[in-house]
Write a structure and sequence with these properties.
three-stranded antiparallel beta sheet; 1 helix; elongated
Length: 71
């Protein structure tokens, strides 16, 4: 049984989770989701995202890798 590493990348466009086997140095799985939408009703120059939506999206990506994570 090899050592596994979980990577999470959050960019303005996507949230990605990847499972890497550190022993064999092989990327085993990767899941990618679109970044949550901006909140509406704000002034034109203001951009915000609900932090809970970011967490939920990251958890969904992790769970799709075969994990079991609850918020």
């Amino acid at each position: 049984l090899g050592l596994k590493s979980l990577g999470i990348e959050i960019t303005p466009d996507t949230i990605r989770a990847a499972l890497f086997d550190s022993t064999t140095q092989v990327l085993e799985q990767e899941k990618e989701y679109p970044f949550p939408p901006h909140l509406s009703g704000l002034p034109e120059a203001q951009v915000e995202v609900d932090p809970a939506a970011i967490v939920q999206t990251a958890l969904a990506a992790i769970n799709d890798l075969g994990g079991s994570v609850e918020s």
